[in-house]
Amino acid sequence: MREPARVPMLDLTPEIDEQWDELTVAMAAVLRSGRFILGPQVAAFESEAAAYLGASHAVAVNSGTDALAIALRSLGVSPGDEVITTAFTFAATAEAIAVVGAVPVFADIDPSTFCLDPGDVASRLSTRTRAVVPVHVYGAPAPVEEIAGVVAGHDVAIIEDAAQAFGARAGERHCGTLGAAGAFSFFPSKPLGCFGDGGLLVTDDAGVASTARSLRAHGFDGGRVAVAVGWNSRLDELQAAVLLVKLAMVDKRADGRRRAARTYTELLDGVAGIVTPADVAGSAWHLYTIRVLDGRRDEVAAALDGAGIDCHAHYAVPVHRMPAYERPGVDLPETERAAAEVLSLPLWPTIGDEVIERVAGVVAGALG
Ligand SMILES: Cc1ncc(COP(=O)(O)O)c(C=O)c1O
Fold first, then answer.
1. Cα(65) to centroid of ligand 1, in Å?
2. Coil, helix or strand for 50?
3. How many CA atoms lie less than 13 Å away from 355 in the CB half-sphere?
4. What pLDDT shows up at residue 264?
5. pLDDT score at 3
6. Is the pTM of this model over 0.85?
7. Which of 66, 185, 286 to mutate to test the pocket of ligand 1 (most atoms within 8 A of CB)?
8. Which domains does the chain carry?
C-alpha cells in the first residue's frame, strides 16, 4: 500500500495552478516590456493595494522587514529612541527597530490573543519611547485602538507590523491602516505572497510617504542626489505583476483559510490538553496555532512528524531570548509560556477537509 503523501505546512501549488494563465501572461508581459524595477506594474500595484486597504499612500519595497524599518525612519524614529514591541514575533520585528538605531523594548502579550497587552505597554513607556510596534500575530488584529489610548498625550507613533495580516480587518478598517503607518510582507507564505521577497508600507501621511519613497531608493530626492542615507529596497516589476494578479483573489484565499481554521477548531475543541485559537473576527488566518498544555507540545510535534505531517512552533524562541536581542532582566511570563506551548498546524487556502481530519486525528491521538 502506498504511504499517503507528506502534509506540508503550506501548499501553494493549487492556487498557483488556478491562476496559472493570468500569472504567466502578466510575467511574460513584464519580460517583453524590458522594464524591471519601479515601473508601471509597481505603480499600479501601489495604487490598487492602497485602494483595497483604504490607505491614502502605499510605497512598495523589497521586504516586510524593510517596510517596517523605512516606516520607523520616515516617522522620525532615531538612534537611541525606544520602541516598544512584542518578543512573541518573528525576529524581523526587532531587527527593523535595531537597524534604524533604536532600542527594542519588549512588552508582554495577552495570552488570549498572543498580541501585545496594552496594560503592559503602558508599564514600559519612558521619556525615550518614540514608537510602539504592535504585531498582528498569526494574522489576527492586535488591539491597536487600546494601545493608541495608552500612548495618547505622548509623542509616540504606532507603526503596525502587519506582515502576517494583509486583508485582516479590525471592524471596518484594515489592519495596517490603524496607526501612523503599517508594514506588510509579501513573503510567499503570507496571506498575500509574491514569488520572492516583497513588502509594502502604507500611511495616510503624505510627508511620511514621500520620505519612504526617497528612503527605498538610496535616499534620493527625485534625481540621483542622496539627501538621506537610504536603502536599496525597490520592489521589482515581476513581483508587482504577480501581486496584482494575486490581489484580485486575496479575499477568496482568506475565506479558504477561515474555513480551514473553523474545521480544525470543530475537530479539536473537545480534545483535552489543548487550547484552540480564538475565532477572532477579521483575522487573516495566516497561521492556525494551538496551545498544547502540560509540557506535551514536543510530544505532539513528534507524533505529527512520525505521521508524515509538518508542523512548526511559531515562536519557540521569543526574541528577547535570542542572542542578538537578549534582555536578561526582562520578565515576560506570558510570552515565555506561549513559546513553550504553541504549535502551528498545516494551513493553506485550498487545504482539504480530509487533510485537516488526518492532522486533527494525530493531535487527538497523541494526547489520548
Ligand atoms: C511578524 C513579521 N514581521 C516581519 C516580517 C518580515 O517580513 P519579510 O520576511 O518580508 O522581511 C515577517 C515575515 O517573515 C513577520 O512574520
1. 6
2. helix
3. 20
4. 98
5. 64
6. yes
7. 185
8. 13-106+116-247 (3.40.640.10), 250-367 (3.90.1150.10)
